[in-house]
Design a protein that fits this description.
The protein is of the alpha/beta class and about 350 residues long. Helix content is about 35%, strand content about 20%. The strands form 5 sheets. The chain has an 8-stranded mixed β-sheet with strand order 10-11-7-12-6-13-14-17, sandwiched between helices. Strands 3-4-5 form a 3-stranded mixed β-sheet, with helices on one face. The longest helix has 20 residues.
């Protein structure tokens, strides 16, 4: 006889058109019951999305009927305004203990996400954080890229170990930022992290509850790429003021970035906008070359009806400064690359102003 977990697994195979994620991840499935081979559950849709019933009813039933011992499947399609995201965790390992809430003293949490790795998400996070800090804000960075924490490296603080004060971890200071990363906590940073949902959710909770962040105008969270457990845990644990999506301009990379954008949108994180990284290369002669194509970020932003926050050029100086642990905003504060990040920081603050309350200055 199929269990509720097996039924949810089958429903995870059903992708919701245009939202870039499956029914379960999007929190649309509720009240799964299985009794003597008869399965019932509710699928919650928003008023504008009632066409989904016509599109998905048959594949949903077929997916569940294919499980062993199922004789009948009854689906209740429920149209509900502020539908679900709070229910999304159920399938993906809801962090036990409910939301953690914002740490006292932290005004805004800003998530930085991407569709895939290697698009420069961490580089953008580090430089954006430094540009926000340079504008007078108190800024923290939480490196939640648990599988590949790179923030200690990018900010030149590898090998540092946070100490404990009053039962809380004290973040490492780097270039005026408060930084916490799984990279500081692993006994051997070269060992792969093989955690699954509940452990990841637990780690995320600790990052908010057990770290003394102090007074911060904003805490940037560098998410792992994709639409996995960590981004979901984040939006369940704390109110996210907004999310920034980093992508590179090629169509494929842009399309994958859209999935993360859609997932965060579905989970009710306001999208502050899209940044196109590695946008173009400016050679010494001043000529611009679009090595990875150009304009994908703007197109994604237009399609998703979210702001386009700007372009960051592709330049060896950005990579080299990160490799030295002194991001370009600090290494060459008056250079053209730093200016691109300062423009990005201004755009992020403007969007945050629309999405919520303005950032205050120290
Ligand atoms: P992600 O966090 O998306 O995996 P990283 O920030 O680690 O990506 O960047 C991947 C690589 O690309 C790093 O070597 C980084 O220095 C380099 N990089 C990122 N952005 C740029 C850029 N705009 N110009 C040149 N190199 C870049």
């Amino acid at each position: 006889m199929a269990t509720a977990e097996q039924i949810l697994s089958a429903l995870r195979e059903i992708e919701v058109p245009d939202l870039g994620a499956d029914l379960v991840t999007l929190g649309m499935v509720q009240d799964v019951k299985s009794l003597h081979g008869i399965v019932t559950f509710t699928i919650v849709v928003k008023p504008g999305a009632t066409a989904l019933q016509g599109q998905l009813d048959a594949p949903v039933k077929a997916a569940v009927r294919a499980l062993p011992g199922i004789s009948d499947v009854a689906v209740h399609w429920l149209v509900k305004p502020e539908a679900r995201p709070a229910a999304a965790p159920a399938a993906k390992g809801t962090p036990p203990g409910g939301p953690a809430g914002l740490p006292a003293g932290v005004k805004h949490v800003i998530a930085v996400g991407s569709g895939k790795g290697g698009v420069g998400k961490s580089t953008v996070t580090a430089n954006l954080a430094l540009a926000l800090s340079a504008s007078g804000l108190r800024v923290g960075v939480l490196d939640a890229d648990i599988y590949g924490p790179s923030m200690p490296f990018l900010l030149g603080v590898t090998g540092e170990k946070p100490h404990v004060e009053n039962d809380k971890l004290v973040p490492i200071e780097a270039h005026g930022l408060k930084v916490m990363s799984m990279g500081f906590l692993l006994p051997d940073p070269d060992e792969p992290v093989v955690w699954r949902g509940p452990m990841l959710a637990g780690a995320m909770r600790q990052f908010f509850q057990d770290v003394s962040w102090g007074e911060l105008d904003c805490l940037l969270v560098d998410l792992p790429p994709g639409t996995g457990d960590v981004p979901l845990s984040l939006v369940q644990l704390v109110p996210v003021s907004g999310a920034v999506i980093v992508l590179t301009p090629q169509p494929v990379a842009a399309a994958i970035g859209t999935k993360t954008l859609r997932m965060l949108q579905a989970a009710k994180a306001p999208i502050l906008g899209v940044v196109e990284n590695m946008s173009h290369f400016v050679c010494g002669c001043g000529r611009e070359t679009d090595i990875f194509d150009r304009g994908g970020g703007r197109i994604v932003a237009e399609h998703a009806e979210v702001p386009f926050l700007g372009e960051i050029p592709l330049d060896p100086a950005i990579r080299a400064s990160g490799d030295r642990g002194i991001p370009v905003v600090v290494a060459e504060p008056d250079g053209a690359h730093a200016q691109a990040f300062h423009r990005l920081a201004t755009a992020v603050q403007e969007q945050l102003l629309h999405a919520s309350t303005p950032l205050s200055r120290r």
